[in-house]
TrEMBL record:
Name of the protein described by the UniProt record: Small, acid-soluble spore protein, alpha/beta type
Domain of life: Bacteria
PANTHER family: SMALL, ACID-SOLUBLE SPORE PROTEIN A
Function noted in UniProt: SASP are bound to spore DNA. They are double-stranded DNA-binding proteins that cause DNA to change to an a-like conformation. They protect the DNA backbone from chemical and enzymatic cleavage and are thus involved in dormant spore's high resistance to UV light.
Length: 85
């Protein structure tokens, strides 16, 4: 079953895009996944990419998403530490 990643707070899109670009050292959040794909050796094109293997798609999405989750957890920890001071 395909997962649908849906942002629960649509207003957060811009902030998440900025975080993604910052973590992946990209100037343009819209190009980040293509830059990561190129670094990983995955042939990702704009538009339909249904022919790529799930393993290759995971290299791209997992790399980006994993780093974003780590940073969001660290941000929450820092915020909680600041609140407890």
């Amino acid at each position: 079953m395909a997962r649908r990643n849906k942002i629960l707070v649509p207003e957060a899109r811009a902030g998440l895009d900025q975080l993604k670009a910052r973590l992946m050292n990209s100037q343009d959040p819209n190009r980040t996944k293509y830059e990561v794909a190129k670094e990983q050796g995955v042939s990702l094109q704009e538009g339909y990419n249904g022919e790529i293997k799930a393993k290759d798609a995971g290299k791209v999405g997992g790399s980006i998403g994993g780093n974003m989750v780590k940073e969001l957890v660290n941000m929450a920890k820092r915020q909680m530490e600041d609140e407890n001071k």
